[in-house]
Design goal:
Elements (H helix, E strand, L loop, with lengths): L3 E2 L5 E2 L3 E6 L7 H8 L16 H9 L9 E3 L1 E6 L4 E5 L1 E4 L10 H9 L7 E4 L12 E2 L3
Antiparallel strand pairs: 1-2, 3-5, 4-7, 5-6, 6-9, 7-8
């Protein structure tokens, strides 16, 4: 696949593009839940309410997971050349390490003392929970 940029400035391969969505609202409920295995009757993929559109949109709509609180939605969209959504990853641009279960305060302090800038960081996770589950959400195709 040839790499390049499309007219919108997105990094692309000939067949795929990864776009950043500034919030869960950039997806439809059907798109997101089609990949997230969030239907109670979905025995094949398992039911995980923490990656459901309803849960993530509630976090963003209520003001819990927004830029002001240090959890700015930067969800990834994988699309084919025709713009069809093939997968998604729940990601947040973090401005601190609070409210997560990755204890990297020592790393961030050391990096900044050495002259680096640790934040913002992109974290692929569900806010405020250590619960394991799918984060790379793809369809059955």
């Amino acid at each position: 696949m040839d790499q390049g940029e499309d007219d919108d400035g997105r990094a692309t391969n000939a067949d795929y593009a990864i776009r950043v969505a500034a919030g869960i609202g950039a997806f439809t409920c059907e798109e997101w839940n089609g990949f997230a295995g969030t239907t109670r009757g979905d025995k094949e993929n398992g039911y995980n309410p923490l990656v459901s559109f309803a849960f993530l949109s509630a976090l963003e709509d209520s003001g819990c997971a927004v830029r002001r609180t240090g959890w700015q939605g930067h969800h990834l969209r994988l699309e084919n050349a025709q713009g069809r959504l093939l997968g998604a990853v729940p990601c947040y641009l973090k401005s601190h390490s609070q409210g997560e279960y990755v204890f990297d305060h020592g790393w961030s302090d050391a990096f900044e003392r050495a002259g680096g800038r640790y934040y913002p960081k992109l974290q692929c996770s569900v806010p405020f929970t250590p619960v394991t589950g799918p984060r790379l959400l793809v369809g059955k195709d």
